[in-house]
Amino acid sequence: MTRGWSPRRQAFVQQYGGDAIDASALLMPLVFFVSPVDPKMLKTLDAIMRSPREGGLLSDSLVYRYSTKEFADGLTGNEGTFNMCTFWLVEALTRAGRTEEARLIFEKMLTYASPLGLYSEELGPAGEALGNFPQAFTHIGCISAAVNLDRGLRGTLIG
Q1: Cα 97 to the chain's mean position, in Å?
Q2: Where are the beta strands (DSSP E) in the chain?
Q3: Nearest alpha carbon to residue 4 among 53, 52, 38
Q4: CA 18 to CA 112: how far, in whole Å?
């Protein structure tokens, strides 16, 4: 855990000894690797929720997987925000007891579904669907976030 934590960024990071944050850290409380209210996890949530200009990954409540400015992934072009990562954020916030923030992000995310309620892999800067469509992983994230957010709002969430 110490090698995956950046004292400078005050967040769990993408690789040991690095400083780049990655939305995959949002999975840590979802798979019970770390408590959702662990101080380091809460700081990681805050770091991710900063705008990209401030070193974070959140843009208008949508989550980038990682910063392509901090980590060269070898792909050409620009990345969109990853829908699954946004649902991970909803669930991580819910588990941390921040249900109102989670609810607002979840409700906004619902507006990006297609008329049939389907999601793509990513969203572009104008809200357009990018990547694989429909994206099953995104739908799994949506279902998990919805179930746990409902439990969190009703006060019946465990863990």
Answers
A1: 16
A2: 5-6, 11-12, 58-59, 62-63, 81-82, 122-123, 129-130
A3: 38
A4: 33
pTM for the structure as a whole: 0.93
CATH of the domain at 111: 1.50.10.10
Q: Is 150 a residue whose pLDDT tops 80?
A: yes
Does pLDDT of 75 surpass 70? no
Number of domains the chain is built from: 1
pLDDT tens digits, 96-114: 999 999 999 999 999 999 9
Round the CA-based radius of gyration of the chain to a whole number and report it. 15
Average pLDDT of the chain is 91
How does 51-62 read in b/e, with b if 16+ C-beta sit within 10 Å?
eeeebbbbeebb
For residue 84, give its domain range. 5-154
CA atoms 142, 145, 148, 149: torsion sign: negative
Q: 83 in a domain, yes or no?
A: yes
pLDDT at 17: 84
**Alpha-carbon gap, residue 153 to 147, rounded angstroms:** 10
Q: Does any domain span residue 159?
A: no
